Structure formats: C-alpha cells, structure tokens
Amino acid sequence: MGNIFEIFSVYKVIFSALLSFWWIIFPPLLYFAFKLLWMDFVIAYSKNSWLGNLKWTMLEIIPPRELERGPKPMESIFHGLAGVIETNNAFKDFLAGRITDRFSLEMVSLGGEVHFYIRTQKKFKNMIESNVYAQYPDAEVIEVEDYMQKFPKVVPNKYWQVWGADMELLKPDPYPIRTYDNFEEDITGTMIDPVSSFTEIMGSLPPGQNMCLQFIVTPLEENWRDAEMKIVDELSKKEKAEPKGPFEHLKEVFTHLPGGFVAPIEYPQKAKKEDQPLEFKLTPGEKEILKAVEENLSKNMFRTKMRVIYLGKKEGFNMSFVNGFFGALRQFNSLNLNGFKPNNISKTFAYYVSVDKRANYRKRKIYRRYRDRDLDGVKFVLSTSELATVYHFPDMGVKSPSVSRVGAKTGTAPYNLPIQ
Q1: DSSP classification of residue 26
Q2: Quick one: average pLDDT of 127-152?
Q3: Three-state secondary structure along 315-339?
Q4: Angstrom distances, CA of residue 262 to CA of 251, 266, 271
Q5: Which of 98, 262, 343, 410 is the most exposed place for a label (fewest CB within 10 A)?
Q6: Closest to 223 (Cα-Cα) out of 172, 149, 297
Q7: CB of 321 within 8 A of CB of 201?
C-alpha cells in the first residue's frame, strides 16, 4: 500500500506543477501542433488549390530565318517577365495560398525537330507576345497544344523508355555560370552561339526519339540578394566589425594612453592589412571572381527548376545522345565560377536491391514531374543573363536544319492598299 501512495503522490506533484505552470508548458506545445496542422497541411492544400485553378497555355516561338542578334534580346524578354511580381499580404500568403507566377521555358527535340516553347498562364499570353515581338519583330508566336499530350501518361511501359535528371549548380547561387559575353571569338570578335551545341545534338535524334530541356522560372524580389551579399564580403576579404561594449572601449583607452605620452604626434602609424586598398589584397583571379559575382547580383533573378529527360521508343533508345547532351552542357561550366551538374538523387538508376523496380519508379517520378511542370526537387537561382545564355533562339550562323524557323520575312501592308 505504501508504494501505491508514493505513486499517487508523484502524480499529485506533477498535476500541481501543471496547474501552476500550464501557461509556460502548453503554449510551445500548441504552437508546434498549430504549425504542423496549419502551416504544413492547410497552406499546402491552399497552394495546390490555387495552382489547380490557374489556366495555362503553351506558346511556340518560331524564330526568324535571318536572325542576326545574339542572346542579348532574350535577356530583355526575361526582364519583362520579372514584372509579374506582386506584393502579397497575409491573407494571400496563408489563406488563399497565392504564389508568385511562374513560367516554363522549354527547348524540345521531337524526332529531330527542335522547338522553343513557353508555358504560361493565359492572362500573360499578350505580355509574352509583346515582349517577343519587341525584340524579334519577324518571329512568330503560336498557341499550340501541349506536346506532352502526344506521349503516354506513364513511362516507362511496354513500348517507351525514359531517362532524366534534375540539374543543380556546382557552387552557391551568386557565382555565375559562363555567360554569353564570354563566348566571343578572340580573332574575329564574333560570338560562338552556345545554343548551337544543343541544337546539333537534339537535331541528330532519329524519329521516335525525343529530348526535352525544361526551365521553370519564378521571378524573385530585389531583397533576395540581401542575404547573399555576405559572399561579396567574403570574396573582398572584408572583416565584419563586431560592436564593442563600454568596458572594451575603456580598456582600449587605457591601453593606448601610455603610448600617447611617449610617441610623437606626427609619427605615422603602420597601416593594417585590412585597411589596405582592395587591389592590393586580392590576386588577379580573385578580382575577376568578385567582379563577376557583383555583376551577377546586380541583375533580376529567377528561382529556377531545371531538368532534362530523354524519351523515346525502346527500339531506338540510345543513351549516347544523353552523353552528347551533357557534353554540350559543360560549355557553361567555369572552374573559377559556377556550372551545371546532374543531381544524383533524381537520376533514373539504382544499384544492388530491386534494381529494375527502383529505377522504373524513379523514371516514372521524373517523367510525371516534367509532364506536370512540378517544382519538386533541387532548385537554384539564375540571373537574366544566365537564363538568356542557356535559353535563346539560335542566330543565322547556326545552320542546323532541325530548328524550326519562319519561312519568309513578314511586313506591314502598303499604305495605299484599297479597302473594301
């Protein structure tokens, strides 16, 4: 009986403690429960509902046949896309589930024919057309059916095979990839179009084989770069001064007081290393990296989801096209700055246990995510110049016949044309 009374006495103490300190114990527990139920489930549901109510369309951009302009005009188009940012309030964020509008830029080879698509909401169709025609007056913008509807809903299957991977950066976001202004030929000064390597690989695909490169981009607000400026401080070897307390100031006064009586006033103090000019602290290579990062951070930025899939009939499925594609992708890599690499978690392979089943599961997963333009998986940030480098219309110097182009130059009607 004594043991029973001791147990009850322990519970009595615990219960009395809860009654006395419930206002300290329960609020944190209720907060985490609220966060789990509301933030993780309700907001996720509201965001999915918001996305489900959006109306999408697919626009194909057919570049002009005699295009003499490089990637620079495409950068202006991306500056125009950055204008869709809206300032949200608490109601839109936490109740309506509104998210920043996004676009899907896609470079696709359908049996060896290369096409350029932009998937967007219908309300932005006129905006995209205006931006494209402003930079490429002779181009054509056509509303077409989603090309993914021509393929099976589930791949791999009995007749179709797929390989895919999400892409990621080699270094943090502020470090730029090799951009189009670094593809200039030294002797003649002409630019080597970086997209030409993609179009040649994609254009060599036989009928029944398809390769798709996708960039889902979401513009970012200007305050995004505030947290990234610490990289600039690190590259410039700028030491952040920590605030000193009153006792430290007094210690500094008494420490330097004896020297003030002994040393002459005009005696020059030796400059500290951190007070030296920046050009003396950095090597030439470090200066170039710092300049590239600062220029990159000065541009409009887009949160980017980049993935590639190779989809085709099993009879002619050849992984050498994938190797050629990644060989072309390496031209954007810079050893001192940044570059692309496939994300190992998303790659469609498996080892050791249930290899075929696990590999097929990964293939179906990345195929579904490409088809739905899903943002799941690793993402990174690219500037307008970086996006224009990897996604732009090839100029007339690219002779690949696989690129769809406008057949004839269009113009306005003559002013004296009779109207009936």
Answers
A1: H
A2: 92
A3: HHCCCHHHHHHHHHHHHHCCCCCCC
A4: 19, 12, 20
A5: 262
A6: 297
A7: yes
In this structure, what token pair is assigned to residue 270? Answer: 């030796």
Token pair of 127, please? 């905006």
Is the pLDDT at 41 greater than 60? The verdict is: no
Where does residue 18 rank: exposed (0-12), middle (13-18), buried (19+ CB within 10 A)?
exposed
Q: Say if residue 219 is preceded by a cis peptide, omega within 30 of 0.
A: no
Helices (H) and strands (E) in the chain, counts: 13, 9
pLDDT band at 414 (very low <50, low <70, confident <90, very high): very low
Q: pLDDT tens-digit profile of 286-341?
A: 888 888 888 888 889 999 999 999 999 998 899 889 888 888 888 899 888 899 99
Mean pLDDT throughout 218-234? 80
Helix (H, G, I), strand (E, B) or coil at 58: strand
- Give backbone dihedrals phi and psi of 94, rounded to 5 degrees, phi first: -100, -20
The string of pLDDT tens digits covering residues 63-83 is 887 777 778 889 999 999 988
Q: Which fold has domain 57-220+300-390?
A: Vanillyl-alcohol Oxidase; Chain A, domain 3 (3.40.462)
Residue 304 and residue 78: Cα distance in Å, rounded? Answer: 13
Q: 39-66 b/e with 16+ CB inside 10 Å = b?
A: eeeeeeebeeeebeeeeebbbbbbbbee
Name the DSSP class of 95: I
Question: Do the Cβ atoms of 146 and 155 come closer than 8 Å?
Answer: no
Cα–Cα distance between 135 and 141 in angstroms, integer? 12
Nearest Cα to Cα of residue 76 among 132, 119, 142: 132
State how far the Cα of 205 lies from the Cα of 234, in Å rounded to an integer.
46
Residue 327, CA distances (Å) to 107, 130, 324 in order: 17, 35, 5
**Per-residue 3-state assignment (H helix, E strand, C coil) for 230-256:** HHHHHHCCCCCCCCCCHHHHHHHHHHH
Structure tokens given for 323: 């190797």
